[in-house]
Q: What sequence folds into this?
């Protein structure tokens, strides 16, 4: 079944070896290869050069995939520093992920030779920098905590135990989503409660709450305030609040940031936009780059309008268009262009291929998912036998579950691979435990204490922890302080509580000035944690802890300045799974399309391209469908040399028949080679399925006619008041006078306006 891959590759790609270098191809624009004054930046095309040298004012680059946006951004930074003499510390460059920020830092260090790379960061990371300097403005210490999902879950556990809630009331995942929606949409003023309300009042609000949602929400705010903690959502909100309340602090940052640049501007949300506008408000140098066709975070509040209307929002905007794609073969470009042009809500723009080398763009239709996975494994093997490194291949999918058959096939075929999903590196127990030890030493906060007090076993079980909790509450102190103050109590006889206190005290007094990697190594050794892992015989966990030590060591060496423990802890709290991507290992990468944003790979396998997977079966609107198509576009434009689109017949895990994705049929079929073509009958069934789902979506398109607080009349339940809207379910949540509990009523249902 691999004949197509192997024969085509044998003939067209492998003949030239694996050193396929985009830059070795002809550049399509004769104006290319222009040099900057002083030859700082060779081989940029005219538009890139303009983007690099147009340093003053408001500049917008609208560019296609693979046209060198990120490259232009990097070169611009270097130009500002090397040619114009701007200090790196006066430049803010915002990227979408930590990984992109790290890459940019590396590239800029290579270009400028300077260790000071200024503020190259994600939005969240930059906000942490602001807060580390100015959190006093909201009466938070510099040592505030940044919470990740596992920390939030730990807080939820405390709330659930305290208020007798169970997962049946709400799972932690749902509770986290709910908190996020409350913060972003339903109660955007929440930060006033968090920042301005005294802890005791917040606690009262929590204790008086009766509705499950309120209990969880106020319990979460109370816990956050108690630990001086912020979650990701709070970071930008709090910084904006500080800027609003303290013009002196705002002006300090505005003056400091002489140049502000933002990558991936198509995926910016309202708060991020506000922050960037404020920051650029003094020097008025704001440079943004984005591709409207790659907006894939609308579901998280991204709004492409900020890019499209940039020229209306700011004065004298200079717009630069970049359409020459340096990344992909003409075949991949043909696939990408013909796919994305089916979106109706877009500015028409075609990518132009600069490369002249050819490569395969294959559609493989398999009988079953297992066959599909096997075909991919055989394809990978064939490419590898032909000289392509494993790490130059990636398998992309819409949703994590799609990776399972491919993983199994790779295991069977003994293909080295790494999955960027499942339990993220920084979410693993041993990593969280190790970091909790570091945090306990730095902050003695309750979250870290609860996590590791009894890990390894110190005989500090539930009864003793409850004792500490009561004491801490009665004396308004932390759990660790409670332990220090009651250490001689009878209850701690026959425990190792004294050793724990001694450990924390010892490290608390000695961590400053020591490298963090060294502190961690000593801490997990002296706490007995490493020994416990050894006794457990868990080599994988030990390896992961070793990996953590190594990553801290590398962070210290790459940072350019002295890394304090607090600095490291806030940095690590913002890391996600995608950041653990280890490029050095020769393994095929498996990841979601969202995780692949901004990356490129010589060979891309896009699997599970079935209707219901991509586009997702959760797609309910035309806009949603267009976002799914953009997602497919992002996936195909990651490929440099080879693109393999695969799907399988059979049945989905819900039992419905599977059809090839509509996006496969959107593609100009002349741009594809078929390894195994679906039959005409299969294709006509697929078309019927698209039509049925379009009809269903049109039915759902009914909009909400009522708002929260409105009175309505239902033909069976009578009068009710709308409590809120569930946009996802397209339903009102209504409290009917005749019913004790609320009901979700579809937007489509016939409701009349009722009397207030
Ligand atoms: N002027 C140029 N000449 C040759 N190669 C270039 C040029 N500009 C960029 N490239 C190469 O093209 C590829 C894509 O560049 P880059 O990643 O900067 O694009 P991008 O627009 O940010 O992509 P995307 O939005 O799809 O993530 C990279 O391999 C880069 O090295």
A:
């Amino acid at each position: 079944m691999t004949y197509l891959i192997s024969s085509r590759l044998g003939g067209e790609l492998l003949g030239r070896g694996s050193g396929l270098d985009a830059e070795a191809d002809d550049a399509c624009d004769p104006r290319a290869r222009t040099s900057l004054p002083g030859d700082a930046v060779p081989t940029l095309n005219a538009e890139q050069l303009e983007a690099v040298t147009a340093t003053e004012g408001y500049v917008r680059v609208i560019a296609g995939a693979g046209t060198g946006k990120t490259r232009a951004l990097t070169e611009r930074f270097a130009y500002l520093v090397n040619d114009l003499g701007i200090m790196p510390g006066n430049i803010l460059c915002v990227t979408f992920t930590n990984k992109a920020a790290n890459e940019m830092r590396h590239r800029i260090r290579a270009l400028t030779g300077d260790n000071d790379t200024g503020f190259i960061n994600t939005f969240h990371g930059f906000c942490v920098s602001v807060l580390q300097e100015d959190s006093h403005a909201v009466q938070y210490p510099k040592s505030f905590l940044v919470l990740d999902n596992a920390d939030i879950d730990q807080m939820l556990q405390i709330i659930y135990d305290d208020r007798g809630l169970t997962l049946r009331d709400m799972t932690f995942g749902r509770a986290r989503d709910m908190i996020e929606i409350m913060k972003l949409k339903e109660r955007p003023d929440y930060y006033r409660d968090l920042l301005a309300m005294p802890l005791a009042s917040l606690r009262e609000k929590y204790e008086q709450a009766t509705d499950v949602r309120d209990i969880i929400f106020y319990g979460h705010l109370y816990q956050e305030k108690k630990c001086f903690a912020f979650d990701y959502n709070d970071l930008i909100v709090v910084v904006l609040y500080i800027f609003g309340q303290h013009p002196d602090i705002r002006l300090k940052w505005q003056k400091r940031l002489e140049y502000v640049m933002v990558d991936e501007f198509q995926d910016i949300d309202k708060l991020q936009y506000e922050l960037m506008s404020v920051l650029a408000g003094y020097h008025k140098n704001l440079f943004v780059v984005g591709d409207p066709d790659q907006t894939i975070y609308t579901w998280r509040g991204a709004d492409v309008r900020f890019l499209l209307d940039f020229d209306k929002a700011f004065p004298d905007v200079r717009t630069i268009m970049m359409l020459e794609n340096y990344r992909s073969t003409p075949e991949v470009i043909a696939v990408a262009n013909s796919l994305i042009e089916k979106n109706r809500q877009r500015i028409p723009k075609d990518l132009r291929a600069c490369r002249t080398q050819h490569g395969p763009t294959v559609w493989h239709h398999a009988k079953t998912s297992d066959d599909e996975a096997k075909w991919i494994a055989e394809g990978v093997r064939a490419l590898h036998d032909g000289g392509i490194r494993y790490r130059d291949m990636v398998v992309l999918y819409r949703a994590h579950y799609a990776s399972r058959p491919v993983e199994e096939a790779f295991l069977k075929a003994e293909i080295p691979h790494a999955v960027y999903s499942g339990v993220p590196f920084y979410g693993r127990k041993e990593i969280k435990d190790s970091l909790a030890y570091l945090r306990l030493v730095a902050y003695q906060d309750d979250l870290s204490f609860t996590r590791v007090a009894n890990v390894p076993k110190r005989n500090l079980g539930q009864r003793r922890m409850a004792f500490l909790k009561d004491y801490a509450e009665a004396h308004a102190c932390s759990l660790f302080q409670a332990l220090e103050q009651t250490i001689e109590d009878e209850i701690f006889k026959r425990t190792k509580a004294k050793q724990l206190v001694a450990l924390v005290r010892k490290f608390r007094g000695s961590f400053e000035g020591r490298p963090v990697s060294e502190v961690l190594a000593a801490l997990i050794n002296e706490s007995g944690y490493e020994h416990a892992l050894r006794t457990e015989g868990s080599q994988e966990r030990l390896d992961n802890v070793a990996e953590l030590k190594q990553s801290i060591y590398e962070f210290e060496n790459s940072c350019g300045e002295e890394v304090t423990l607090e600095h490291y802890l806030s940095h690590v709290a913002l890391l996600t799974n995608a950041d653990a991507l280890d490029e050095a290992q020769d393994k095929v990468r498996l990841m979601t399309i969202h995780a692949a944003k901004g990356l490129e790979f010589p060979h891309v396998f896009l699997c599970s391209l079935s209707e219901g997977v991509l586009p997702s079966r959760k797609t309910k609107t035309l806009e949603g469908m267009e976002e799914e198509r953009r997602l497919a576009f992002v996936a195909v434009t990651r490929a440099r040399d080879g693109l393999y689109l695969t799907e399988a017949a059979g049945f989905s895990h819900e039992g419905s028949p599977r059809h090839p994705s509509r996006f496969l049929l959107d593609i100009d079929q002349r741009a594809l080679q078929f390894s195994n073509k679906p039959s005409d009958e299969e294709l006509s069934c697929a078309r019927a399925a698209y039509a049925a789902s379009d009809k269903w979506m049109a039915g759902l398109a009914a909009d909400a006619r009522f708002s929260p607080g409105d009175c309505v009349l239902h033909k069976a339940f009578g009068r009710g008041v709308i409590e809120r809207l569930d946009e996802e379910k397209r339903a009102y949540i209504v409290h009917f006078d005749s019913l004790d509990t609320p009901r979700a009523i579809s937007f489509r249902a016939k409701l009349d306006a009722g009397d207030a």
Notes: The pocket of adenosine-5'-triphosphate is lined by residues 22-23, 27, 43-45, 48, 63, 65-71, 291, 294, 326-327, 598, 600, 637 (CB under 6 Å). The chain has 31 helices and 22 strands.
